[in-house]
Design brief:
The protein is α/β, with parallel strands linked by helices and about 375 residues long. It folds into two domains: about 170 residues, Alpha-Beta Complex (Quinone Oxidoreductase, Chain A, domain 1), CATH 3.90.180.10; about 140 residues, Rossmann fold (3-Layer(aba) Sandwich). The protein is built from eleven helices and 17 strands. The strands form four sheets. Strands 5, 6, 7, 8, 9, 16 and 17 form a seven-stranded mixed beta sheet that branches. Strands 12-11-10-13-14-15 form a six-stranded parallel beta sheet, sandwiched between helices. Strands 1-2 form a two-stranded antiparallel sheet. Helix 7 packs parallel to helix 8. The protein is globular. The structure holds zinc ion (2 copies).
Length: about 375
Amino acid sequence: MKQGKNNQNYDIPETMKAWVLDDPEQLRLTEKPVPEPGPAEILVRVDAVAVCGTDLEILSYGLPAIIEGGSPFNKNYTPGHEYMGTVVKLGRGVDDFQIGDRVTAEVHAGCGRCERCREGMYTSCSNYGMNYGDKDKGHRANGFTTDGAFAEYAVNNVNTLIHVPDEMSDEEATLVVTAGTAMYGLDVMGGLIAGKSIAVTGPGPIGLMGVAMAKSLGAQPVILTGTRNSRLDMGKKLGADQVINVREENPVDKILELTKGKGVHYVLECSGASNALNEAAQMTNRGGRICLAAFPHEPVPVDLANLVRNNIYVYGIRGEGQSATHRAMAFMEQKRFDATIIHTHTFPFEDVPTALKYAKERIEDAIKVVVKIT
Ligand SMILES: [Zn+2]
Ligand SMILES: [Zn+2]
């Protein structure tokens, strides 16, 4: 029994309840040993975990989860990667956090030794998935290459944890990775400079957080495009100056009209639509920048001549690198925007399959579905 800073006691049992992935779409509730934190690791009691679109991908197709160098099916693997909780045990040498601290976790610890990790691009670690047997290079990505948080406890590298302010709810704290991903997209484009214009295409969780983040950084105007008016209304609440329903208006024409024919400086593409890059290039001004945060499942034709002739830069991002989650948390802590707007549903731990179903089928217009464990 350990005493925490809040004089709370944390009895750590030997086993815990955890959901594991058997065949595709087959999650099963089982018992697992509670993991031990190694050097530079912390055992976190999971208090809340949000469902991400990538969880749904993993359940159906396996990738991008990679367990022991291959498919994650039938390996006793636990998904879930957007989580927060309470520090209950510290690994050797950890003094950055105390027992009882509330923390939220970003996904990728990286290996810390490859060229990309050393550059801060740990979401693009060259040793991705190398954490087993004689290929153990210390890489971790929660719920992707190691066990995730649809479980009562999870172990995490100290470099991925962020303190949660007392006044922030558990549910809101699970949204930091989403906001951090949007922040990373803006970083990768060279950083958003106040007064520049941006279009965010696709009002999913990342797109909506992209709107909030861009507005907080001083973008003007912030334009959001999408197909659902309910989502576009949320975008307005999060800071969109203009919203365009692409079923009612041509987004390229409308954006050119709003920018006096010039187009926007930045496009953050979050729709994954097959023609999204071509449209983004048409709504970007000459010399402008596009960041792809979503992608279509099939290869798509791209008008390269338009990109080259107009000196348009195209970036892709994977996840939430360069400590963007820490900066996202700073914005959320300062209440620069209300991330809780995108949290629509909460389910208990026993109902993880229902939570996933709500997210997948967007039942009752679900956006961010959170599983509350304690
Ligand atoms: Zn995610
Ligand atoms: Zn690495």
